[in-house]
Amino acid sequence: MNQLIYKILFVVLIISLWSSSLELSFLTSVLVLFVGLRSKISRATSSFIVGLLILLLIGCVSIFTYDESWYGFLKDFIYFLRPITVLLAAYFTVVNLKEKRAFFDLLVLTGFGFAGIHLLEIAINIVSIGPDISKLRGEYGRTNHVEMIALFIVICIKNIPIKKTRYKIVYQVFVVCLFVSFILYFSRTMFLVLFLMVLAYKGFLKLNGRGIVALILLAILGGIAMFFINQYEPKTEDPGILGAFALKIKNSYTEAFKPIDIDPTKNDKRELWDHWRAFEANLVYDKIEDEKAWVLGAGFGSTVDVGFEIRLQGEFIRYLPTTHNGLAYVYLKTGILGLLLYLFLIATLYLYYYSKRDSEGEISYNNLLAACAFYMFISSVVVTGIFKPYDMVTLLIGGTFALKQHFYFEDRNIRNEGDT
Predict the structure, then answer these.
(1) Is the pTM of this model over 0.85?
(2) Are 155 and 198 in contact (CB under 8 A)?
(3) Which end of the chain lies in a sparser environment, N or C, as judged by fewer CB atoms within 10 Å?
(4) Alpha-carbon Rg of the chain, whole angstroms?
């Protein structure tokens, strides 16, 4: 098949993930997978896919006792199936590309495109936005993981074709636009994920002498930063862009890890929003305890009862089918068995740090998979992990597995030729 078709389909897949639509990204990934499907697959890829399939099967166990709307069951099924189709779609796309590292080029170029559009929209409307971070993020985007991955590639990945372009100035201008656009999302998750991925790729999060020193320094710097942030009291009314972002950072811990009890009859529930993610996770824990579904969870189609109606994404809802905390979500649907398997998959990515490495290429791809482990873990704590429709980690994992396999066979052929 024409190489241009594979590249176009891959860009369409990236855009479908950016759209944050479960249905669109799932159908697109199935289409791209169908077009690029081949009979052979690497052992590393198949092992990871098997883990995801087991998670899917654990969630399906509830089908034998399920008596609610089948829409909820089917939606959860697609939530768990979609990471598999996205990973395989990325894997087979790279397998079919003659220039394998075009995988990185396409991600970077798509990120450049999103960054340019983002900055243009802000520039046109900058007067109406003013120093209002909520308005800036609400109208022009709260997150863009395509841009985050593109920036990571620009920072870390060497020798990709786009870095060798004749139009150096144009490339550098777009890199600056990408960096500025990334900052203007004011996303705590994106900042943290990018920071940890860069450190991981550079080898600073490996548990060796250098890694331990780096972790100690990070702990010290993080402690100092948190001390000053806790001492800082930004204005809650009209705090400005930087003040509002500082307030978001200040509330990060309580939002994610400090649940509160709230009277469901109380009209003013604003205090709950600063603890919302932790509140959701606590509801999951209580539900599993009440149902004694520790091992296999409540299964697909299960929900947690908030106790009162809340407005989410423009509609009022009381029973939540998903949670922000991806680990809590996995625990709700698949129990402790599924949660342990999910954490094991993250650990397998991290352990690529310690894989046998005889060349710079192997080191690069192993470190990239280790960086994906941190991406997957942090996004799982904050934004539902690989099940979030806009999450890019499964696409990155699939592409990297294909690159790693290609490099292995290419390197082996070169060695064989050298032995003759």
Answers:
(1) yes
(2) yes
(3) C
(4) 22
